[in-house]
Amino acid sequence: MEKEQAVDRQDFDEVMVPCYAPMQIVPVKGQGSTVWDQDGRDYIDFAGGIAVSCLGHCHPVMVKALTAQAEQLWHVSNVMTNEPALRLARLLTEHSFADKVFFANSGAEANEAALKLARRYAADVYGPEKSEIIAFTQGFHGRTFFTVTVGGQAAYSDGFGPKPGDVTHLPYNDLETLAAHMSSRTCAVMMEPLQGEGGIIAPDPAFVQGVRDLCDQHNALLVFDEVQTGNGRTGEFYAYQGLGVTPDILSTAKSLGGGFPIGAMLTTTALAEHLKVGTHGSTYGGNPLACAVAEAVVRTVTEPDFLAGVKAREQWFRDALQAINAQYPIFSEIRGKGLLLGAALNAEWKGRARDVLQAAGAEGVMVLVAGADVVRFTPSLAITKAEFDEGMARLSRAIGTLYTQQMDKTA
């Protein structure tokens, strides 16, 4: 067998489209919440592949599911169905409001399906003039042209020519503005039940209930983007279950496959009927490999003790971050829920979230950012106490180094 070609970070610059700016380290192995790079150096993973690796790296239930399915069936296309897809769909309906499931490959594709369904339903039932989609500033819904337009961050959608029309962006958590704007033309309101990319912004309970009420009043659909919040991330299987408000359509991905690409749109029987044969599809959606892994993930995450463990780990993070901040005061608040948390930088440290990320990497701990002012944590939902403690010790050293450097500059 031919020996594998040696590659390193420089190869990225030579052969990859430069729409990413990856760190210099190249991970080659992961186990639990620890990752090793090409030089054998270990890193504690508080990033979880951006809220994807919900069971950590190479979890035994995932490895077993993938290995078993790899010896059975890889792909059949949607000319036929397959057993893993049917089992996973049944499982998702048992653990949510939904009756029907559409499988895709990513969160963006799940959101694309959700938006197309909302538009198709409104056109079928009320007519073509009911087409407005309302979303919120600083929202993020994917990178397809439709989803990136609905996402409320112009920096991601500008520069690609004319955008899909009839999309309105309003401030998050501002019910008065939404109420003043909504009309009979509104076909759907799309929102994250906890904004991720926008800075880990939680909704006011009254706002969430008010959005639901306004949608009912104007015969509009409520679409929850749970790509980042779903599958146990907030301590509930889906975040809506902790808010007391049920959407009409829900999108899920990221943690659903625990690292294997898969997305899904969940909805009711009455709405699903409007995506008739031929109106939407996906070559790989419902792939047996992806669905087998996702089934193993969902069965693990929905165990009551597992979800209780997410809430306990949230407190680990809050307590440790507050202790670091007492020694090196750079944060103004700790935001979020479950293990979707953001440490917001205070006025003196505004714009330096990436500095914290880089310093953390240098100390051997992986974190994320949510904009320029928030350090984001989306670790494995099963991270061990030993991994957590080591990661926080490394993060404390990283922040201590930055803090000392800043104090030396201003002295």
Automatic annotation (TrEMBL):
What's the domain of life for this entry? Answer: Bacteria
A single GO CC term, please?
A: cytoplasm
**Pathway this chain belongs to:** Amino-acid biosynthesis; L-arginine biosynthesis; N(2)-acetyl-L-ornithine from L-glutamate: step 4/4
* A GO MF label: pyridoxal phosphate binding
Residues reported in the UniProt entry to bind N(2)-acetyl-L-ornithine: R143, S282
Keywords of this protein's UniProt record, alphabetized? Amino-acid biosynthesis, Aminotransferase, Arginine biosynthesis, Cytoplasm, Pyridoxal phosphate, Transferase
Q: Where in the cell is it found?
A: Cytoplasm
Quote the EC number.
2.6.1.11
Task: Provide the residue positions that the database annotates as binding pyridoxal 5'-phosphate.
Answer: G107, A108, F140, D225, E226, V227, Q228, T283
Q: Which CDD domains match?
A: OAT_like
Please list which residues make up the signal peptide: none
GO biological process terms held by the UniProt record? L-arginine biosynthetic process
Where would you say this protein principally sits, based on its record?
cytoplasm
Q: Which residues carry this modification: N6-(pyridoxal phosphate)lysine?
A: K254
Co-factor: note: Binds 1 pyridoxal phosphate per subunit.
Q: Which cofactor does it need?
A: pyridoxal 5'-phosphate
Q: What class of enzyme is it?
A: transferase
Reactions catalysed, semicolon-separated, are: N(2)-acetyl-L-ornithine + 2-oxoglutarate = N-acetyl-L-glutamate 5-semialdehyde + L-glutamate
Instruction: Tell me its family.
Output: Belongs to the class-III pyridoxal-phosphate-dependent aminotransferase family. ArgD subfamily.
Q: Tell me how this protein assembles.
A: Homodimer.
Q: What else is known?
A: May also have succinyldiaminopimelate aminotransferase activity, thus carrying out the corresponding step in lysine biosynthesis.
Q: What is this protein called?
A: Acetylornithine aminotransferase
- Source organism per entry reads Photobacterium aphoticum
- What gene, per UniProt, encodes this protein? argD
